[in-house]
Write the structure tokens for this entry.
Amino acid sequence: MNSVQLVVVGGGPGGYAAAFLAADLGLSVALVDPEANPGGVCVYRGCIPSKALLHVANVLDEAKRAKAWGIEFGEARIDLAKLRAFKNDVVKRLTSGTGQLVKHRKVQYIQGLAAIVDPHTLRINKTGGGEESLRFDHAILATGSAPAKPAALAINDARVMDSTAALDLPDVPKSLLVVGGGYIGLELGSVYAALGSVVTIVEMAGGLLPGADRDLVDVLAKRVNRVMKSVLLNTRVIKMAAESKGIRVTLEGPSLRDDARYLLFDRVLVAVGRQPNSAIPGLDGTRVKVTERGFVHVDEQMRTDEPSIFAIGDLVGEPMLAHKASHEGRVAVEVIAGENVAFEARAIPAVVFTDPELAWCGLTETQAQKDGRKVVVAKFPWGASGRAITLDRTDGLTKLILDPDTETILGVGLVGPGAGELIAEGVLAIEMGANATDLKLSIHPHPTLTETLMESAEVFFGQATHVYRPRR
Ligand code: FAD
Ligand code: NAD
């Protein structure tokens, strides 16, 4: 029987990062995934295709905004087939790259779905037909997650889409209902709005992106309210029915007008969260524990309760983000290779790639309030940033969450174009235990949006060059 030191089940950003590091460390490695090449949800139907489309959405929006600067392009003509081909090509380029890396690293890539026979044996149902058994010393489970489908939202009609179907860009519907004002609802809702759909968002919580700091979300919400037809908060979809002219949706919410309770949409995108893929055949025959919410239970070294089996990524818990999955994958491999390491990130960045982008890392102000933790918040409005003014984008905000006694940077929040790139500096600052003085004394290039981080630190001391806000 084929046998390896490590098998990784699932070829997403968690699984392939783990398999590649294990090969680099000299282990014999197999990677099992149903697709032709590694990539997982992130590359095939998540992060990457959505960002390709969001890039196009930004171009469309910028072109419209250019009118205010004396440049007019006229009405955009959208060639949907070409747009689809661009997005598919982006995915193909990346997945053929990961396929090459598999070969260079001599990772055994087995295309198929794995079932667990016992804590040292897998049976793989191969995509091309047939089965293969595989013995292993250690396994890393990295089977990821899939869209959640609550019963009220599960109707069998192609016009009701999950994120995968929406990324396929079947058409540009005249009207689109987005159920869920979280990451996917806002990102893909923005894409369809930019392409010309009239978009309505329904969110059951009292605000978009529950969990993120309100002052950041408020900036994004202003624009979302402008580009979407309406955003219905504290509202749920309680029923959907297919009609010949569209999907009839019944809404429930305290502030809904009677005429807004039964609406008809050409298409609906359901984006109400994701569920871990923990129904791996044979898993229940091992000592691996699965929580009530379906996450595989692991310790900080990514060990499950079965000594030979580790688990990482969306399968083990939130935040369900690609970079968290990759980092966990690398930790699991190092532990298997005998190193004394653990997953102990101080800051996992979160980025919502809307326009403006919203990003945060470390402690949020909301969390500090919940925990009753005393913090100081220093904010720098982008209206005072030279770079933001040159971009005609003064709608941003940078904030630091600091320990009042040690001045240590505990959290960073950003909203504005490019926030997703800027947040990396916050991650480094938090991981390095930097304080406000470190950030203040680091010379930042001018004119850039990075200066807003430095000037936020100056705000903390009441000495920001471009805002007058004496220290209280
Ligand atoms: P996945 O990427 O889910 O990969 C798991 C793989 O395991 C899949 O290929 C699956 O087919 C395979 N598998 C499942 N069962 C088996 C089995 N029994 N045998 C073999 N293989 C199996 N995150 C970000 O950080 N940034 C973003 O911009 C971002 N955008 C997103 C946009 C969308 C529309 C979606 C849906 C998600 C997005 N995410 C983003 C989340 C990100 O995709 C996930 O957090 C990430 O893919 C998780 O990685 P993973 O390795 O845990 O699993
Ligand atoms: P989400 O958790 O981000 O948002 C779901 C939203 O739906 C929440 O605001 C929730 O309150 C709301 N909701 C739940 N049930 C509802 C209902 N019945 N009616 C109305 N609203 C309801 O989930 P998502 O947008 O589906 O994305 C899933 C995960 O994928 C994210 O949490 C994130 O981890 C990951 N993701 C990340 C990125 C990124 O990093 N940029 C992008 C897309 C997805």
Remarks:
- The radius of gyration is 24 Å.
- The first strand starts at residue 2 and ends at 9.
- The mean pLDDT is 97.
